[in-house]
Amino acid sequence: MYPPIAQFGIPGAQELLIILMIFGMLAIPVVGIALVIKYLTGNDSETDERIAELEREVEELRAADSKSDRASGDDR
Prior knowledge:
Helices cover 76% and strands 0% of the residues. By secondary structure, the chain is mostly helical.
C-alpha cells in the first residue's frame, strides 16, 4: 500500500484539505467567468468618451433652452 500524499499531525486535516480542494474547484470557474465577463464588457474608454459627449450635448441643449426662455419671456 502506498503512503498518503499529505500526512498532517492535525486530526481531520486531510478532510479539511479535501473540502478546500472542492471549494477551489467550484470557486475558480465562477471567478474565471466573472473575469471574462468583466474583460468583455470593460470598454471604459469608449464609455467615458460617450458619456462626455452626451454631457456636452445636454449642456448645449440647456443653454439653448434658457436662451429661448429669455427670448419668449416664459418663466418656469
